[in-house]
Amino acid sequence: MTTKCNVCYRHCELDEGQRGFCGVRSVIDGKVTPLNYGRITSIALDPIEKKPLARFMSGSKVISVGSYGCNLRCPFCQNYEISWSAEAFELGKRAKYLSPEELADLALTYKREGNIGVAFTYNEPLIAYEFVRDTAKLVHENGMKNVLVSNGMATIDVLDEISPYIDAMNIDLKGFTDAYYQDLLKGNRQMVMDFIAEAVKRCHVELTTLIIPGENDTKEEIYNLSKWISDLTDAEGNRIGPEIPLHISRFFPRFNMTDRDATDVALIYDLADTARENLKYVYTGNC
Fold first, then answer.
1. Exposure string over 168-205, b if 16+ CB within 10 A, otherwise e
2. Tens digits of per-residue pLDDT, 98-137?
3. What is the C-alpha separation between 124 and 111, in angstroms, rounded?
4. Cβ–Cβ under 8 Å, residues 81 and 22
5. CA–CA separation, 199 vs 151, rounded Å?
6. Residue ranges of the domains in the chain?
7. Distance CA 2, CA 134 (A)
């Protein structure tokens, strides 16, 4: 008998002990469970601007934590060592365990260093949304903030689980064609768009698009992407899209895409100007 995972569009049907596409969700005693729950591969006290968040508690710092695994297959992954490479799963086996209580307490300890809370980041945090939910609840109880950095490829049910405890998100909107998501990333653009459209009703959201030469780098695509953002509404139906920040970032050759040149800086600035035709806050990154 198989058990269905509820995280992303794949809805992996898993036998006992079998892992899903993300590499970390598995069936244990008939229940889908994240094997990376509390397994921390990366931790740092970062400026909030590195998430990137440009319009949320600027000048503050946040304890950033990552685990391992991902439900996309971006060939240009900047954190491939902990995402979906063979090294990621070997590293995951050795990762230190931190309980939600321990992580919440650690965040509180660093409050005197300017820390505002916890950012779930580096790998894809939503493949272990249970850990995000359990930890973020305790962080809130300590009077601190929670940040999520995600590819946004998750169901609204997952969003329902975490959103009461999340104060800000940066979500990747990696491109604006189905072919780009399906063929290059092995993902689903519509699921990401649905997640974003609902997330902006619940907390502060900023979006990031990494510009890959020859893939998602046309003015037409960025215009269409920014126009879609500009039409988003809040929970009351008010149009808030023009106020949603968009970060347009420069690509550098990494992982399985070292055959491309870095994105031309002038192109990043040009595409940012295109996005500003629809959005008030557009930022350039890695330039």
1. bbbbbbbbbbeebbeebbbbbbebbbbbbbbbbbbbbb
2. 999 999 999 999 999 999 999 999 999 999 999 999 999 9
3. 25
4. no
5. 12
6. 3-285
7. 26
5 is written with which tokens?
Answer: 């995972």
CB 276 within 8 A of CB 268: no
DSSP bridge partners of 145: 117
- CATH for 3-285 (3.20.20.70, 3.30.1330.40, 2.60.40.10, 3.40.50.720): 3.20.20.70
Q: Distance between CA 215 and CA 111 in Å, rounded?
A: 42
Answer for the pair 176, 30: CB distance below 8 angstroms, yes or no.
no
> What pLDDT digit, counting tens, does each position of 198-256 carry?
999 999 999 999 999 999 999 999 999 999 999 999 999 999 999 999 999 999 999 99
Question: Residue 45: how many CA atoms within 13 Å on its side-chain side?
Answer: 14
The predicted pLDDT at position 56 comes to 98
Helix axes 100-109, 129-141, angle to 10 degrees: 40
C-alpha–C-alpha distance, residues 252 and 190, integer Å: 26
Spatial distance between the Cα atoms of 278 and 207, rounded to a whole number of angstroms: 14
With CA atoms as reference, report the closest residue to 187 among 200, 171, 201: 171
- Tell which residue, 33, 34, 53, 46, has the closest CA to residue 166: 53
